[in-house]
Amino acid sequence: MGQIGVWLTDPRNGLIRIGYWVSADHRGKRVASRALRVATEFALDIDGAVRVELDIEPWNTSSRRAAVGAGYRCEGLRRGAIRIGGIPRDVFRYARLVTDSTLGSAGAAELIAADCTAADAAELHVLQRCCWVAEAIANDTLDIPPLHESLAEVRAWIGEWTVLTVRDGTRLVGAVRGRLVGDTWEIGRLMVAPDLAGRGLGRRLLEQAERLAPSETTTFELFTGARSARNIDLYERAGYRVAESSGVPNGHIAGAVVLRKPVSKNRP
User: Fold this and answer.
1) Which domain holds residue 236?
2) How far apart are CA 1 and CA 27, in angstroms?
3) Residue 224: CA count within 13 A, CB half-sphere
4) pTM
5) Contact 50/97 with Cβ under 8 angstroms?
6) 82 and 144 together in one domain
7) In CATH, what number is assigned to the domain containing residue 62?
8) Which of 4, 44, 45, 71 is the most exposed place for a label (fewest CB within 10 A)?
9) Helix (H) or strand (E) holding 131
């Protein structure tokens, strides 16, 4: 199935490293996500631990999602930092500190994030419909694709987008998706279970989605209903601004507005 290891690389300074691999026939089943969360919590519980690190090659988007889901932050690209088969390879350095807050710190410590798979599609389909009812009321329209998509359509975009889900125990309570269009990272389907709204989970999901953007990204972009005041307030507090647009792509609410945010030059 795979292997994961925890190394005390610098005990005096509390530095720990994690490495893992998953066999091809077990990839896409959240094996890495679950193993990394367990290993990370084990590492952070070691007496004197300060920092846990892992390196991931840029092409490995699944491992990058797993790292973000386990509370790691990308600290930048390390060029030629490792050798594989004698060839220098670039890697992204991800790290988590003992003092870092996690996604669950918004009010429920048991909340965990993970990359989405086709196995999550049915629950995601239901959550999506629950979340967009409020948008239909606020914008006085039922012309909202998330309310009408079939289960097959949800399964399809899970395979086409980078998708993160959040669970409270076994219950799916949140999700967000992102994809690169040119040099723009489009973020969408940001959803939080209605009974958990207002606890900061949406803001944290947005932050997680931004961290997953490829290094060539220059702009973050998202769409929401023109009368979705709560959504617009969340996005503007995160640095987004309503922008002019020649049109709204398929898959968004009728009359949607576009909000954009330039990628910080200091972004890790």
Assistant:
1) 106-262
2) 9
3) 26
4) 0.64
5) yes
6) no
7) 3.40.630.30
8) 45
9) helix 121-139
Q: What is the pLDDT of residues 22-48, one digit of tens each?
A: 888 877 777 888 899 899 989 999 999
Task: Sort strands 184-192 and 219-225 into parallel, antiparallel or unpaired.
Answer: parallel
Say if CB 210 and CB 233 are below 8 A apart: no
Question: Quick check: is 268 in a domain?
Answer: no
Contact present, 103 and 55 (Cβ < 8 Å): no
Please write the tens of the pLDDT for every residue from 7-25. 999 999 999 999 998 888 8
- Nearest one of 46, 35, 41 to 11, comparing CA atoms: 46
Q: Residue 59: which H helix or E strand, with range?
A: none
Last residue of a domain, one of 39, 65, 100: 100
Q: How many structural domains does the chain have?
A: 2
Give the integer Cα–Cα distance in Å for 110 and 211. 22
- Distance separating alpha carbons of residues 47 and 41, to the nearest angstrom: 12
Q: How far is CA 218 from CA 86, 187, 188, in A?
A: 33, 13, 17
Of 236, 176, 129, 211, the C-alpha closest to 257 is: 236
DSSP 6: E
Domain boundary among 61, 85, 100: 100
Asked if residue 21 belongs to a domain, the reply is yes
- Give Cα 117 distance to the centre of its chain: 13
Q: In what order do the strands lie in the sheet with 111-115?
A: 111-115, 162-168, 171-181, 184-192, 219-225, 256-262, 241-243
Do residues 74 and 120 share a domain?
no
Cα gap 10→196, rounded to integer Å: 40
